[in-house]
Amino acid sequence: MATNEPKYDVLWPLSRKAVKRTAAATRLPDLNDKVVAELWDVIFRGETIYPLVREYIKKRFPRVKFVPYNEFGNFHGAREHEVSATIPDKLKAFKADAAIVGIGA
Amino acid sequence: MVERLGIPTASIIGSGFLKQAEVITKGVGVPLAIGVYPGAPMVDSEAELKRKVEEELAPGILRGLTGDAPPDLNTEVEPAPGAVVMSGTYDEVQEHFYKQLWTDGLPIVPPTRSRIDAFLKFTDRNETDVIRVLPQEGREGSILSIAITGVMAGCRPEYMPVLIAIIEAMSDPKYRIEDSGSTPGWEPVVIVNGPIIKELDFNYGQGMMRVGRQANTSIGRFVRMYLRNICGFRIPPGAGDKGSIGQSFLVAMAEDEDSARAFGWPSYGEDRGFKQRENIVTVHSVVAITSPMYSGGDDAKTHVQQWAEVIAGSFTYWAHTGFKTGLWSPLIVAGPSIAGVIAKEWTKAQVRQYLYEHMKVTAERATHYARMTSTPTFSFENLVRDGILPPDYTASKDPERLVNIVIDPEMVEILVAGDPGRNQSRAYMSNHVQGPPTSRKIELPKKWKDLLGAKK
Question: What average pLDDT does chain B have?
Answer without folding.
Answer: 95
